[in-house]
Write a structure and sequence with these properties.
With 144 residues, this protein is an all-beta fold. It is built from no helices and seven strands. It has one domain: Ribbon (Cystine Knot Cytokines, subunit B). The N and C termini lie close together (7 Å).
C-alpha cells in the first residue's frame, strides 16, 4: 500500500473575466476574444483517444493600464462542466476545470503623462482539464 501526504487547499483558482465587483485597482482579464474553432469534447485529437473537455482558443484583452495588452489563452466551455461519463448510467465522474499559469504583468498606477509602472501577477487560463471525482468508483491511480 502506498503512503501519500495529503495537502488540502481551497481548490483551483477560478478564472474571472471582466472587472470584479468592488475592484479598487489592478490588472484583470477584461475580455475574451475567441480565435478559430473550439475543440469539442469527444473529438479525436490524438489517434485513438478522445478529448474529455471542450476547449476554446483565443486572446484575453487586459485592462487599459496594463502591459502586455493581451494574452493567448484556452478556456473551458462553461455550458459543459461534466466529463468522464459512465456508459450505462450516463453519470459524470469528473468535472472540467481551467488550468492557469501566473504571469508577471506591469500596471501603470500613474497617468499617461507621468507613468509609474508596478509589477503584479495575473492568473491566465492556459488549458481545460478533466478532474476525476474522489467519490467515483473509477481511480486515477491503479490500486496495487
Amino acid at each position: 500500500m502506498r503512503n501519500f501526504m495529503r495537502l488540502y487547499d481551497s481548490g483551483p483558482a477560478e478564472v474571472q473575466e471582466g472587472k470584479p465587483e468592488n475592484w479598487k485597482s489592478g490588472c484583470y482579464l477584461e475580455k475574451f476574444v475567441p480565435v478559430g474553432n473550439c475543440t469539442q469534447r469527444g473529438d479525436e485529437e490524438i489517434w485513438g483517444y478522445e478529448k474529455l473537455c471542450t476547449a476554446c482558443q483565443g486572446v484575453y484583452i487586459l485592462s487599459d493600464d496594463c502591459f502586455p495588452a493581451f494574452f493567448n489563452s484556452v478556456v473551458c466551455d462553461n455550458s459543459e462542466k461534466d466529463c468522464i461519463f459512465d456508459q450505462y448510467t450516463a453519470m459524470a465522474h469528473g468535472k472540467c476545470q481551467a488550468k492557469t499559469l501566473s504571469f508577471k504583468v506591469m500596471r501603470n498606477k500613474g497617468t499617461r503623462e507621468c507613468e509609474e509602472w508596478i509589477f503584479e501577477y495575473l492568473d491566465v487560463p492556459i488549458a481545460c482539464e478533466c478532474f476525476l471525482s474522489k467519490t467515483s468508483f473509477l481511480h486515477a491511480v491503479p490500486e496495487l
